[in-house]
């Protein structure tokens, strides 16, 4: 069936196979991949509604949740992503997208989910600078290492290390009116030897925000809101596949039950105590290994 004006097939509520009719209600200009994805989604959603005999009240509650997530989202807050994270969807897509063999000993740096709090255009810093403003008594940490070509082991010059993490109060700068704009975020570039170095904080465990639909859903499911202490990175260099990842502090009690299901063993690190440096009590050496295109 077509509606004549734009060639779009029409579905009717009275088709004997209503679901198939909705799936097939596409026109010739529809992108094939999009048609596959939307068709699959409609199939699963319809099956879900039938299997669970979802009532109109339940359906409207879900739509309301989606609308509220959208209304509270902006450049600093991504509630849709947060909802997807606590349902394991971003972690699953990360796993599907990853090309790494699960058990190989020597691997390129594993990816981990982006999460809702990355901001673009974090300040660019010089080698050895600190991303921390304030928190004089917190666990300041020297983090340093190299960005390497995984296949050849050669250092990559001018690679970008984009880093962000929470303050000791568990809040990203964008959630916290007490912190200066872009605090605890920064972009560094490796030198000709592939090295970077920066000061950050040893991270603390962190409850995801409970003031929106994601927090509300966790409460309704009687789930805890904790992410293990983590630091986010995007590592990029010309000619290489960018790596979105996180590192996790081994001492954290939530390493095995991350609310966002993001922890991978190869990303769990040990911070070492650092003596005689007024700028940092801890040290972490960490190399990132990228794969060329
Ligand atoms: C976070 O800080 C985060 O990193 C992820 C992945 C999900 C929710 C909050
Ligand atoms: Fe995070």
TrEMBL record:
Keyword rRNA-binding part of the UniProt annotation: no
UniProt-listed Gene3D superfamilies: Aromatic compound dioxygenase
CDD domains, sorted: 1_2-HQD (cd03461)
UniProt keywords, alphabetically: Dioxygenase, Iron, Metal-binding, Oxidoreductase
Intradiol ring-cleavage dioxygenases domain boundaries: 130-290
Cofactor(s), by name: Fe(3+)
Domain of life: Eukaryota
Residue ranges annotated for the Catechol dioxygenase N-terminal domain, each copy included: 31-103
One Gene Ontology biological process: catechol-containing compound metabolic process
Molecular function terms, GO-annotated: catechol 1,2-dioxygenase activity; ferric iron binding
Entry protein name: Catechol 1,2-dioxygenase 1
